[in-house]
Design brief:
The chain is of the alpha/beta class and 487 residues long. The protein is built from 14 helices and 19 strands. The chain is globular, with a radius of gyration of 22 Å. The relative contact order is 0.13. The structure holds zinc ion.
């Protein structure tokens, strides 16, 4: 008889400083699939669930059941009622049946309004239902973990890359270890060590030669040398205000608990040594635009990290856009993006060719800059759907809601209904903007943007400006982060 594997995805990176809570509608907008529908949606994609589908295709002796597979864009803490509804889907699906293994696809930096250790709670409650059934968990590199959740899972693996181009491989490895455990090939024992430092995620790329790249190399070398099942370094997500904030290291050994503990401590010590190198400074929006326009010919990009939706940004702050309106560049320029449902509806009602006098940004919160009044001409309207063409979640369909392009002083400004980071060239191409033909591209984005746009850009300048994911953590009031780690 085939062995039975239950699969659930419940992933969220929660930012304590993003206005509002993350509710049912946010999960539905980003992806809400269960049963065979999940298999259809993710089949053929380079995603975690896509990897599970492919892996199980090669293991016909296992029969998978998709419970809920959902995630929401990084934003405020998950509303308690939403958390309970999704947990109800997972636990209700598990109850009253016999499973040989459970795979949970989590992020690791989820907060819910009533509990800043939400991922730990998910594993706890699943464990209560399935008893000793092996549970495998996959995490994002930005997870904020605690010891209990590592011990409570049977085996777990986190991403090794940032930008995250190994989601697929991470799930593949998690399932290989999980199924191997059920079939008696592995005896995983987990160890966990905290890195006593709150690490800003800006200088956390694993491409190039930064501190995170060094740590990944150290972890990979330790894994290989000691024959460990997995060594994961978590950079953490500093905008999630939780007692688990900060970097950490998770190690799984095959039977040798002492070895796992020792390697976790050693790699964590290497991470702590490098903590100061994660602290960097960035130019203001004004200065970043100046540098971009003075850069060698080609496409120059200015990235507004502080309002990157992938870090809890709201598509609404005006630091970079305000500076762009003052700079008035006389070169082909695009700005991605503002999220403004009402304005998109107004543009659709007015039609292509209409001239609108409107305010951009500063709508959801005035804390991060005043609205910018502009006169613009509607030059394009879309239904906001495209498929990713870049290396992250390749081929996955993205839904921006309805969108519009407003030409403001020759700057093409993209307006959307949903709040998603313009990390894929498809985001621009569907708006008739060929990134290769721009001189200046201003985006609300951060590191992940580079995965797809490095081939287009000759210059990329990151800036810091007010926003829910501003680089400098000094602006934020932490309540749960251990006092010793606060900036
Ligand atoms: Zn991440």
């Amino acid at each position: 008889m085939a062995k039975r594997l239950a699969i659930a995805k419940f992933a969220h990176e929660s930012n304590s400083f993003t206005p509002g809570e993350t509710c049912d509608a946010d999960f539905h907008a980003y992806g809400w699939h269960r049963g065979d529908e999940a298999a259809v949606h993710y089949s053929g994609t380079r995603t975690s669930i896509g990897a599970a589908i492919d892996f199980l295709g090669l293991h016909p002796e296992w029969q998978e059941t998709f419970l809920i597979c959902t995630a929401a864009n990084p934003a405020g803490p998950v509303a308690d009622a939403t958390f309970e509804r999704i947990m109800g889907e997972i636990l209700g699906g598990l109850r009253g049946q016999t499973w040989d293994a459970v795979y949970l696809c989590l992020h690791g930096a989820m907060l819910r309004a009533g509990n800043p250790k939400a991922d730990e709670e998910i594993i706890d409650r699943v464990r209560q239902v399935v008893g000793r059934t092996p549970i495998g968990v996959s995490y994002d590199l930005h997870g904020n973990l605690g010891e209990a959740q590592v011990k409570n899972a049977t085996v777990a693996v986190g991403y090794k890359t940032h930008p995250h181009v190994d989601m697929y491989e991470t799930t593949e490895k998690t399932l290989r270890l999980l199924i191997g455990t059920v079939e008696g090939r592995f005896r995983p024992v987990g160890a966990f060590a905290r890195v006593e430092a709150l690490l800003p995620s800006f200088n956390m790329r694993t491409t190039g030669d930064g501190p995170m790249a060094e740590l990944e190399a150290i972890a990979a070398e330790a894994e290989k040398r000691h024959g460990l099942l997995d060594v994961t370094v978590f950079g953490g997500f500093p905008y999630a205000d939780t007692p688990y904030a900060g970097g950490s290291v998770m190690v799984h050994a095959d039977g040798d608990a002492a070895l796992a503990e020792r390697v976790a401590r050693e790699v964590a010590a290497e991470a702590l040594k490098r903590a100061p190198r994660f602290q960097v400074e960035l130019p203001s929006a004004e200065e970043a635009i100046r540098q971009a326009l003075a850069s060698p010919p080609g496409v120059a990009v200015v990235l507004e990290n502080s309002d990157n939706p992938g870090s809890g940004g709201i598509g609404d702050t005006t630091g970079l856009f305000g500076a762009l309106m003052v700079a008035k560049p006389k070169v082909p320029t695009a700005f991605a993006f503002f999220r403004d449902e009402a304005l998109v509806a107004k543009a659709h009602a007015a039609g292509v060719g209409a001239t609108l006098d409107v305010s951009l940004g500063g709508r959801i919160s005035a804390r991060f800059g005043d609205p910018v009044p502009v006169r613009g001409k509607v030059t394009m309207l879309t239904d906001g759907r495209f498929r990713n063409v870049g290396p992250m979640s390749t081929n996955l369909e993205v839904d921006l809601g309805h969108t519009a392009v407003l030409d403001v002083d020759r700057v093409k400004v993209i307006l959307t209904e949903h709040c998603l980071t313009p990390n894929d060239p498809g985001f621009l191409l569907m708006h008739g903007i060929d990134p290769a033909k721009l001189r200046l591209l201003c985006v609300k984005a951060k590191n992940h943007f580079r995965a797809a746009f490095t081939p287009y850009a000759t210059t990329m300048v990151d800036c810091d400006s007010p926003g829910p994911a501003a680089l400098s953590l000094k602006h934020f009031k932490f309540r749960h982060v251990p006092v010793a780690l606060r900036p």
